[in-house]
Amino acid sequence: MGTRLPRSRRRVGSASAGTELARVLLRVSLGSTMVAHGVKHGRSLEGTAGWFEAIGFREPELQARLSWLVEVGAGSALIAGVATPAAASAVIGTMGVAAVTVHRENGFFVTNEGHEYVLALAIASAATAALGGGRFSVDRLLRRDRQLSGAGAALIAVAGGLAGAAVQLKMFWRRPDR
Fold this sequence. Notes:
This protein has helices spanning 17-43, 45-54, 60-80, 84-103, 116-131, 138-141, 150-172; strands at 11-12, 15-16. The chain is an all-alpha fold. It contains seven helices and two strands; from the N terminus they run ββααααααα.
């Protein structure tokens, strides 16, 4: 009889148990962060709309509703591992808009309202797209997890997110007078 691999080296499907755990932890932490942001926006749509208007968005009520919907929807999809690259793309786009409209001019560190946090969420989203939903995801259950994964999935998620952010900014945002 052969030797048995130590528990840390056993394979689960096509990835190690550690990789599967990393996928779940990344999806759940990123997804729950986005859901929390969306719920915060949704609890006070009027206040959120006022904030969007103050930072230079036209149609602030629409922006408030869309931020609530996209953040809760993309976050929930990430948690469940549904359409993982598309959900990651939505987060990347949201973070791109936030970086340009709120954080870019404040430098890097989040303690100064810089772009550190939104950049970290966007990069984590690209990594999530590359890793895919994994064994414990709806994508796997539906056998969609191998249709788009790896570097191609990350590239599409980043390009789609940044393109979506660019369109939203072009259509709805202008730099407010200071």
